[in-house]
Design a protein that fits this description.
The protein is mostly helical. About 80% of the residues lie in helices and about 0% in strands. The chain has helices spanning about 1-30, 35-40, 50-65, 65-80, 85-95, 100-115, 120-130, 135-145, 150-165, 165-180, 185-195, 200-215, 220-230, 235-250, 255-265, 270-280, 285-300, 305-315, 320-335, 340-355, 360-375. Helix 5 packs parallel to helix 7 (about 120-130), helix 9 packs antiparallel against helix 10 and helix 20 (about 340-355) runs antiparallel to helix 21 (about 360-375). The longest helix has 30 residues, at about 1-30.
């Protein structure tokens, strides 16, 4: 009998040692990222312990198989409701598979258990954002109130207020972020964009330059630096950045458009024409804008007849291009002879586009009154194309 008992104990010990060995191997494979093999060793745990269930779930997450991990986490929570880490990971899993309601429930429960954890508030905010629940803003704000260093929440608020163009709120949270993380590229990027959108071009250049030093081949940064310098009429600097952007992306006609406009500002018309034509070739989708730019190019040189033809082509491509319609009328004002022809174009603009641009409306109204008065007085002349 003793022999049988000892044999039985021996078998148990061997099995236990084999099981322990399997878990050790599984852990080693897990650490090396060999998740599929790690799972095969964890599944040898006949006790199906909470430890192995957790490791299997995390291995599935490592494989990107989030839905397969969920049943293991659900089982762990069912057996032990005190497992906050498991509930936290489960909430994030539901967020990843866009099961917003279940994720919301888990993070609300976690917040009820620990109201001072900023990351629970942040995760709840992400779920609310996913579900298009506008209360997400308050969740991110509460996260920062609990932890002013909570970078992820700061980024979310900066992104939101930048998009909404709510500059006071944006500046508040961006300043908090930059105070704690002055070298954070995302926060600097948001600050640069906000400055540009508020037409604070010198400030925008300062922040975009910081990004340029970090990433000198980023075409978005190069283009924005070009535009900011362009708006300050620093044409040489603008052209330099546009050319660098072209070096990174030779298919984008917008870069050539801006170079053409910069050269036009410098009255270098031959260089301007070359780039505007190049833009037209590349930007066949935006061809009305390129015809418009060529029209402006001819107008600047008082070639009104050619300008009119370009504006007419722009309008044919896009009947809603009010800028082309306005410039067409202005060019015709300098080119057509009869007051009736000029009046007709201005009245046509007013009928279709009044309210689109205040300055244009003022010019159009003044010219309509002027030509009506001339026509009333009988000051008509014959229309002649130069």
């Amino acid at each position: 009998m003793k022999k049988i008992t000892l044999l039985f104990i021996g078998v148990i010990i061997i099995k236990a040692e084999a099981q322990t060995s399997a878990l050790i191997v599984g852990d080693s494979l897990f650490q090396l990222g060999n998740y599929s093999k790690a799972i095969s060793f964890y599944e040898k745990d006949v006790d199906n312990s909470l430890y192995t269930q957790t490791k299997i779930a995390r291995a599935y997450i490592g494989l990107g198989a989030h839905r397969k991990a969920i049943p293991y986490y659900e089982n762990i929570v069912l057996k032990d409701s005190t497992q906050l880490i498991t509930q936290y990971e489960l909430g994030k899993l539901y967020y990843k598979i866009k099961a917003s309601e279940k994720a919301f429930d888990y993070f609300k429960k976690l917040i009820a258990k620990d109201k001072k954890n900023p990351n629970f508030r942040y995760q709840l905010g992400l779920v609310q954002l996913q579900a298009k629940d506008k209360r997400y803003i308050e969740s991110f704000r509460k996260a920062i109130a609990l932890d002013p260093y909570h970078l992820k929440s700061i980024k979310q608020l900066c992104k939101h207020f930048l998009k909404k163009r709510s500059w006071v709120s944006f500046e508040k949270y961006n300043a908090i972020g930059l105070q704690h993380y002055p070298e954070n590229e995302m926060l600097i990027n948001y600050k640069a964009q906000a400055s540009f959108n508020q037409q604070q071009y010198k400030k925008a250049i300062t922040y975009f330059t910081k990004l340029y030093i970090i990433d000198p081949y980023n075409k978005f940064i190069l283009y924005r630096l070009g535009l900011a310098n362009h708006m300050l009429m620093k044409y040489d600097e603008a052209i330099s950045f546009y050319e660098k952007a072209i070096h990174e992306d030779k298919t984008n006609g917008d870069y050539h458009t801006q170079i053409g406009l910069a050269y036009m500002g410098m009255e270098s018309y031959s260089e301007s024409y070359f780039h505007l034509i190049k833009a037209m070739v590349l930007n066949d989708v935006k061809i009305d804008a390129e015809y418009y730019n060529l029209g402006i190019w001819h107008k600047e040189q008082e070639q009104y007849g050619k300008a009119i033809k370009m504006f007419q082509k722009a309008i044919l491509e896009n009947m809603g291009n009010y800028k082309a319609k306005f410039e067409h009328a202005i060019s015709a004002d300098n080119y057509y002879k009869t007051n009736e022809s000029k009046l007709e174009l201005y009245e046509n603009y007013k009928m279709k586009f009044e309210g689109r641009n205040k300055r244009n409306d003022e010019v159009v109204s003044a010219r309509i009154s002027h030509f009506k008065e001339l026509i009333h007085l009988g000051s008509n002349t014959q229309e002649v194309q130069k």
